[in-house]
């Protein structure tokens, strides 16, 4: 398939620059794959579309304040670090800007020396492996010095760091939020549980590759980025029991989809597993693990748009996006939601 098949024109003003005060007040577009109908609701109506015995699968990753601003030791030149992947307790893979300042052996300081970094490897893709030196607790230092790595299309400063976290975030490691989950509140989750709906958690640490455009004209030639995932025994048991009892598996966000589809056996059974996934889901893919999806609206020509086009079909998805533009939906990370059922 051609990359242009997944292009649509989006007015800049429709890119949400900040979250709504009430997480559940976002619009909810409901797509029915059987009847090919579209309904316009609000996210707090989501319980109307969930049945007792269904299972919501959520990604409990927590975003770290992964953007660091510092200076080069010696010259004082300004530098920006973006933490991508933790290798061990004090070693990370990072993106640096400007990269030309970050040769092998270069040292940088942050917070007047509270944190020191040395480049120990230059990777072929331009990323660096750096070793940090610090005293104290890493998480506390990062919380003091770091900023939330908001997507490049969000230009406004985030007033409250927690608004770029889901209320159920737990396992630190993401460079970006699993944004479909931002619409849930603890009160809504309690209401969902009270209706007899199961909730299971997977972990997938979202990398910045999620925002990288597809650079190949033929999408099948695109090389997908790698992300770490984990499925626990408890989660596998809940999902497998739900399926055995005839309930639906409803993924919250494309990261939950990618996790489940990475581990699922041919019959849809979910095993206990952890590792790295580079799964690329695009039209023609046969889903094994999920029955429905709650998601946000995605960037043109993105792998995420291709994923949801695989779950429904490209024509109906593109029609839905054009409808969303006509109906003034808010797009991307802090935007409105869609249920594909």
Walkthrough of the structure:
With 341 residues, this protein is α/β, with parallel strands linked by helices. It has 2 domains: 8-63 and 160-340, QueA-like (3-Layer(aba) Sandwich); 67-145, QueA-like (Thrombin, subunit H). The chain is built from 6 helices and 17 strands. The protein has helices spanning 138-145, 186-194, 233-244, 254-263, 303-311, 314-326; strands at residues 27-32, 37-42, 55-59, 61-63, 67-72, 78-88, 91-97, 107-110, 115-122, 128-134, 171-174, 198-204, 227-231, 249-252, 273-277, 292-296, 337-340. A 9-stranded mixed sheet has the order 2-1-17-16-14-3-12-13-15. Strands 5-6-7-10-9-8 form a 6-stranded antiparallel barrel. A two-stranded parallel sheet has the order 4-11. The chain starts with 26 loop residues before the first strand and ends with a strand. The mean pLDDT is 95.
Q: Numbering strands along the chain, what is their spatial order in the largest sheet?
A: 2-1-17-16-14-3-12-13-15
Low-confidence stretches: none
Distance between the termini: 24 Å
Q: What is the CA-based Rg, rounded?
A: 21 Å
Main β sheet profile: 9 strands, mixed
The helix/strand class is alpha/beta
Query: Any idea of the CATH topology of the largest domain?
Result: QueA-like
Give the ordered list of helices and strands.
Answer: EEEEEEEEEEHEHEEHEHEEHHE
Q: Regarding quaternary structure, how should these chains be classified?
A: single chain
What is the CATH homologous superfamily assignment of the largest domain? QueA-like
* CATH level 1 name of the largest domain: Alpha Beta
Number of domain modules: 2
Strand content: 25-35%
**Helical region count?**
6
Helix content: 10-25%
């Amino acid at each position: 398939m051609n990359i242009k098949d997944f292009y649509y024109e989006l007015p800049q003003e429709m890119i949400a620059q900040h979250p709504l005060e009430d997480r559940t007040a976002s619009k909810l577009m409901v797509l029915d794959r059987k009847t090919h109908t579209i309904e316009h609701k609000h996210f707090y109506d989501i319980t109307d579309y969930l049945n007792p015995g269904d299972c919501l699968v959520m990604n409990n990753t927590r975003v770290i304040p992964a953007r660091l601003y510092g200076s080069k030791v010696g010259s004082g030149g300004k530098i920006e670090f973006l933490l991508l992947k933790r290798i061990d307790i004090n070693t990370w893979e990072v993106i640096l800007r400007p990269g030309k300042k970050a040769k092998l052996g270069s040292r940088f300081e942050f917070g007047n020396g509270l944190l020191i970094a040395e480049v120990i490897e230059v990777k072929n893709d331009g990323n660096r492996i750096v070793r940090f030196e610090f005293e104290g607790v890493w998480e506390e230092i990062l919380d003091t010095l770091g900023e939330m790595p908001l997507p490049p299309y969000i230009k406004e400063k985030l007033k409250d760091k927690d608004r770029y976290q889901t209320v159920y975030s737990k396992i630190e490691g993401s460079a970006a939020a699993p944004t479909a989950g931002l619409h849930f509140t603890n009160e809504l989750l309690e209401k969902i549980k009270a209706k007899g709906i199961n909730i299971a958690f997977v972990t997938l640490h979202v990398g910045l590759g999620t925002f990288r455009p597809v650079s190949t004209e033929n999408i099948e030639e695109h090389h997908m980025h790698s992300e770490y995932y984990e499925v626990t025994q408890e989660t596998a048991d809940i999902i497998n029991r739900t399926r055995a009892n005839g309930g639906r598996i409803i993924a919250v966000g494309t990261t939950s989809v990618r996790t489940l589809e990475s581990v699922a056996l041919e019959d849809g059974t979910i095993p206990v597993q952890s590792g790295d996934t580079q799964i690329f889901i695009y039209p023609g893919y046969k889903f094994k693990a999920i029955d429905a999806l709650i998601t946000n609206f995605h960037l043109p020509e993105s792998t995420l748009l291709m994923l949801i086009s695989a779950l429904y079909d490209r024509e109906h998805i593109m029609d839905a996006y054009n409808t969303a533009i006509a109906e003034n939906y808010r797009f991307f990370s802090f935007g409105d939601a869609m249920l594909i059922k």
